[in-house]
Amino acid sequence: VDYTDVKEQALFGEVSYEVTDKLTVTAGLRAYEYEVKSRSAVDLPLFETVFLGRDPDSIVLDFGEEGADDSGTLFKFNASYQVTDDVLAYATVSEGFRIGGANGVAACPPDIDEIQNQIICALPDEQVYTADTTTNYELGLKTTFFKNKLHFNAAVFNVDWEDAQVGGATVNGQQPITTNAEGANSRGVELFTRAVLTDELTMYATYSYTKAELTADAPFLFNVYDEFDEDGNPTNLDELFDGKDGDRLPGSPEQQFSLGLTYTQEVFGDKMLDINYGITAQSDIITTVGQRRSGESLAGYAVSNLTAKISDFDWSVTFYVDNLFDKYAFVSTRAHQGYQGVGNIAINRTDLQRGYGHFLLRPRTVGVTFSYQFEM
Length: 376
Fold this sequence. Notes:
Blueprint: E1 2-18, E2 23-40, H1 45-52, E3 64-84, E4 87-98, E5 101-102, E6 128-129, E7 132-145, E8 150-162, E9 165-169, E10 176-180, E11 183-196, E12 201-214, E13 219-228, E14 234-241, E15 255-267, E16 271-282, E17 285-286, E18 297-298, E19 301-311, E20 315-322, E21 330-334, H2 350-355, E22 357-360, E23 365-372
Antiparallel strand pairs: 1-2, 2-3, 3-4, 4-7, 5-6, 7-8, 8-11, 9-10, 11-12, 12-15, 13-14, 15-16, 16-19, 17-18, 19-20, 20-23, 21-22
C-alpha cells in the first residue's frame, strides 16, 4: 500500500531574434522545482497465516515515509536557416528532465540482516530515485516540393542521459523498483513524408531508427546467482551487480514505421467523407536492461486501422476498425520471470504465474463515434 503526493512548479519562456531574413535564433530557459512525499507499507497475509500462524483476518501495515526533491534550470537553443523558399535547415540543443520519486516500498527494519522470514522491503538506496536529465542535440531539414504537394522532413538526434531511470528490483523480496543508472545514450534518425497524390487522395509515411543503451555500468539492478541446487534454487550469490556499459535499454523498439492513405470526397451534396487506412509496425523490444535477469525479447509486429467519417459543419459520425486483421502480439510483460526468483524456473509454477504474464495487443475492435458541436 502506498500514497504519493507530488508538487511541481516551473517558470519558462523563450525569445526569438531574426539575425537576417534567412537566419532566426531562439533561446529559452526553464526553472523548475519539485517535491515528492510518499508513505508505504507491505504485508504478506497469506505467508504470515500459513507459516507463522497469524489470524487470517489480520493485516498489519507499518507505514514508512520516503521523499525526494530537486530544483534546477534547463536551457534551449535553436537556429533555423531558410536555405530556399522550400527548404528549411535547423539545429537544436536543449536540456530535459524527468522528476524523481519514491518507489513505494517500505524501508527495511534496522535488524534486516537478522530476519530469517520472507520480507519485502527497500534498503536505503532503493527507497527513492533521483531525477534524470538529458542533453539533446538535433539536426534536421524541412522541405516542400511541387507547390506543397510533397513534404519531406528528416532529422538526426543524439540524447545524452545522466542518472537514467531504469527498472530494477529490491534485494529483499525482489519488488520491482525504479533506480538510477550512471549514464545512457539514445541516438537515431527520423523521416517523414506526405504526398498529395490527387485532389482526393493523400499519403503519408514515417520511419525512425533509435539505438538506446547504457554508457556506464549500472550496479544493483538485480540479484545475480551463479550456482543452483538440483531443484534449480539459487545457492550462491555471484554479485549484486547488473546492467553493463553497452546494454540495450528496455521498452522501446529500434525501428518503427507507419504508412497511411486518406481519401476525401464530398457526398450527399455538401457532406464530407474521409476514409483513412493506416498501418504501424515496430521491431522487437526487450523487457529488462540488456535482457538480463530472465528478461525476454517480444517480437515486433504490424497493426492496421481503418476509419470512415462523414461530417457536416457541426456534427460528424465516425466508423472505425482498430487492429483490422486481428493481429495477436505481446506488447509488454507484467513483471518478468526473474521477479519470482532466479534459477531454472519451470514456466508453469503457480507462484510464477501469479506475478508474471504478458499484456496483449488489443484484438480487433469495431465501433462508431458521434460528435456534435453546440453553439454557446
